Amino acid sequence: MKRLKLILTVFAGALLLSCSSVKVVTDQDTTTDFSKYKTISFLGWQDNSGVLLDEIDEERLRVAFKNEFAARNIKAQEEGGDMTISLFLVVDEQTDSSAYAKYWSNYGGRYGGRYDGGWGGSLDTTTYKENDYFVGTLVVDVFDEASGDQIWQAVAAKTITENPDKREKSIPKAVAALMKEFPLEPVE
Predict the structure, then answer these.
(1) Neighbours of 68 (CB within 10 A)
(2) CATH class of 2-97+129-179
């Protein structure tokens, strides 16, 4: 069980590390005036997300979101912000496959001629390969604290790599890609 948790932590922690781009889908309440919000607070990670992330990567994600909101003049506070943010992480294992056919032939004789009546032969091979990989999906729900209504949602998906060395730089980049879709532009 500990090994499974460690493996899932590595994969989930690397959620935002691969070379592929982050795919982002958003939705919002179009009647909301986002410029009225001045503070945010985090509700925490939703059920089962904590199993997939270690504390270091959780903090990296929180700091990246705090920085993105700060760039929009929205400050983070421990609780009671104008907006509250809920985070949820899902990791899905997927498999892709590829096949390569190689055909070699020697029609003709000993001298390489095609129709000189000699002997010939052929070789036909097919190589089939399956590749397992993980796709991480981060769901960000933003609520109006006063009404409790959901006002914005973003879903970001990315192929996960296992290289933990790049997390510190790649997590903020992925959060920035997600936050490009937020209704307020950075002011800096």
Answers:
(1) 18
(2) alpha beta
